[in-house]
């Protein structure tokens, strides 16, 4: 990183000098041989050059400082329970000691792990015990089963000298699976879906389009949904952070607006109508068709009304068969026979 700053300074200086040469050439050509004017312009150009070089020096120093401070920092985002590893750019032997330090968000600094040729590995802080290892050849530190408290900045000392590199670690919880809530409005064709979480929220519909949510005063967002009369249309809410992503179960328009209840009512009406038509057809068959009438009367003779056959047939199933049956014709009243005769024409 240190070798980059002289390169930047040289490149910027060459660019600035080239710019000055072009400006000077333009001035010389436009002076039309006026030597006095040319000398004056040269002085102005020299003063401008000195000013540019001064600005260049300080700006280059600032750029180098930014590269040193920020360019040497690498960051990692991890979920709770995951593993992270940090390795220095280079490690030059011989190495007699390595110390990895952790600076928390509160500013406290502790040793995550240390090693030296005499005592070997040592993990003095209980936060890192049993989960931290060190590769002595590469200087790499590995931490498993991460928790939120492992977040912070990590630095490495090699042979008791702190290295320039900084490693930032952010450990966060995985997002939960979201659940949407439905809120009705005074308009029966408009409803609101709410997703009450602090994480990034992504709304989508069944067409895959991303919808714009509106922030709540409470954590989360909501969207307004209009009834499209398609009960299969649905909406989802996705929670996302740097380490995880979870999507809710889809909520359909049938659930939001109750579109499915109308369909169920229609099916019920159709079934009832079919049953009524079937009953009417059976009754008409008994009244009109002689063969049906005779078949029913053979089983249940002397029926006084048209509803008698149904009652008779139901009771027949509960009776035990008799060895001998009386003559049905003798048991039928004369008036009944006459009714039958008149009904069927003899």
TrEMBL record:
Primary localization: membrane
Any single Gene Ontology cellular-component annotation: membrane
Database matches in InterPro entries: CD2/SLAM_rcpt, Ig-like_dom_sf, Ig-like_fold
Membrane spanning residue stretches: 55-73, 263-289
Signal peptide span: 1-19
Compositional bias segments (type: Polar residues): 324-339
Protein name per UniProt: Si:ch211-132g1.3
Species this chain originates from: Cyprinus carpio carpio
Lineage: Eukaryota, Metazoa, Chordata, Craniata, Vertebrata
